[in-house]
Design goal:
By secondary structure, this protein is mainly beta. It is built from no helices and 11 strands.
Length: about 130
C-alpha cells in the first residue's frame, strides 16, 4: 500500500554533505515510524537513524551522531536525512523504511519495518 522512493544520493568528497529524501506514496505515512538504513558491500544492513511520527523519539547510530540529522515533513509525506562531515566509511546504499506498528517508538531492527525504498547510492571519496 505504501511505496517509498529515495533520492539525493551521489558522490561527495570526505567532509562534504548530502541530503537524502524519501518520498512516500500510496497512502500517508504521517502516523508511521520511519528510519534510514545503509548497507555496504559485504556488510550487514544497519540502521543509521529512526524517528517516530511526531519526532518524540529519535535514534542515531553512534558513529553518525552529531553528523547526521533525521527529519520528516508529514504534510509532504516525505522523510529526510541530512548528512554532514561525511567520511569514506559512510559509503553505502542508503534505504528508507517505514512501519505503522512502531509509531510511538523507534527500532533499529530492519525486521520491524514493512515498507522499504529501493535504495540510493552514497559514495564518499577520500
Amino acid at each position: 500500500q505504501v511505496q517509498l522512493v529515495e533520492s539525493g544520493g551521489g558522490l561527495v568528497q570526505a567532509g562534504g554533505s548530502l541530503s537524502l529524501s524519501c518520498a512516500a506514496s500510496g497512502q500517508s505515512i504521517s502516523s508511521y515510524a520511519m528510519a534510514w538504513f545503509r548497507q555496504a558491500p559485504g556488510k550487514e544492513r544497519e540502521c543509521v537513524a529512526a524517528i517516530t511520527w511526531n519526532g518524540a523519539h529519535i535514534y542515531y547510530k553512534d558513529s553518525v551522531k552529531g553528523r547526521f540529522t533525521i527529519s520528516r515533513d508529514n504534510a509532504k509525506n516525505t522523510g529526510f536525512l541530512k548528512m554532514n562531515s561525511l567520511k569514506p566509511e559512510d559509503t553505502a546504499v542508503y534505504y528508507c523504511a517505514a512501519d505503522r506498528r512502531i509509531s510511538y517508538t523507534v527500532s533499529s531492527n530492519p525486521a520491524d519495518y514493512t515498507y522499504w525504498g529501493q535504495g540510493t547510492q552514497v559514495t564518499v571519496s577520500s
